[in-house]
Amino acid sequence: MKRKLYKAGKAGFLIILFGILFSYAMFQGGFVSWFLFYSFLPFLIYMGGLLFYPLDDWTGARTLSSGLIESGEAVDIEIELRRTIPFPLYFMKIKESYPETLHLEVRSGEGVVTGDREEKVVERMIFPWFRRTVRFHYRLEHLPRGSHQLGEMYIRTGDFFGFVKKEAVINAGGRFTVYPPSRNVTLSLGSKGFGQGRSAAANVKERHSNMVAGLREYAPGDRISWVDWKATARKNKMMTKEFEQEKSSESVLVLSTLSSPGNTAEFEGAVEFAYSLMLKLTRRETRQLSFLSLGRAGKYVTSIHSRRQQEVIRYHLAEVYPDETGGFEEEMAKGHDRLPAQATLMIISTELDESVKNSLLRLSPSGRNVVLFVVMFHKEWDFTKQKHVRELKEYGVRVQVLTEKAWKRPEFEVEV
To answer: What is the DSSP secondary structure assignment for residue 413, as one 8-state letter?
Structure first.
């Protein structure tokens, strides 16, 4: 309704202006009056045409320079605008306001992850004139991890004098995912190592010297020499031998997403460390690794063998966000039945409170080797948290704190 009233008002104004100029030329006469009338007539015709020109005729599409983007990197976006009616447009202002998920800037320079919220707005001024297709590009830098849905573009144009102004919205669409970055992890063995599997063999010959503990279904990554052909023929599906050493070297990587939304930098660091540690452990042939994330959008992936399973975890880590709806004890209790007996638990968290401490104290007597990685700023490492660490260590739970000093290094150095 407002648009119709605006158009009617502007059309009435142009008609009145035309009438005034024509009346002046008719009654005044002479070269000057008619010169003014004919000089201004093209502008009146243009303003009238622009007033009724359908700006909704424009359509847009976005093209990304790369489909594989990691947190902190940049991406080039090309915008292509098309139309069917080649009406001359003196200028066109384009504005893009990005969703809240892109307002966070992640700067990973010098190995330090910091998060600053800054609204991202891109504005461009172009001069299409008669062109049916217009292209331009820009760069988005310091992209935050996550799945981002690009929305609408706002275009605005007008005449030479600003009497007629028109606006329209273009829904160009576009969705892309920014994955967590990975960094090399240097592992050093602690006093307990990785449970009973610390002395696991690093080569195939030593692995074959172990006692066969049972059979399991074939998983991508298993060697052909491990296949039990008799059991395969009997069950009509590929079966591989499960060695005693293989059972004793099972590990579970647990990521707690239970964090306050205000702990943005710590949470991003925890996700990066979880992904880097997962890649490091899956490259070691002597270890079976499972992955569990705690929270409302929790996920469990057992026995990571294939590249596809790694990609599933990577995509999950790209979309996970801090969850403050649950408690660590409750979420850990829900996932307790999934955790294999005698497995090494490597837990990554941005919190170390009473709930986390009590939950880990209940896990320690069960025979599991428990390692807790706490990601937080040094200023938050207060007396209460240090007291929790001392209590956990008394019960055999090893705790490592990753502060800013750890993030300044080019690689993670942890003791397991």
So the answer is: E
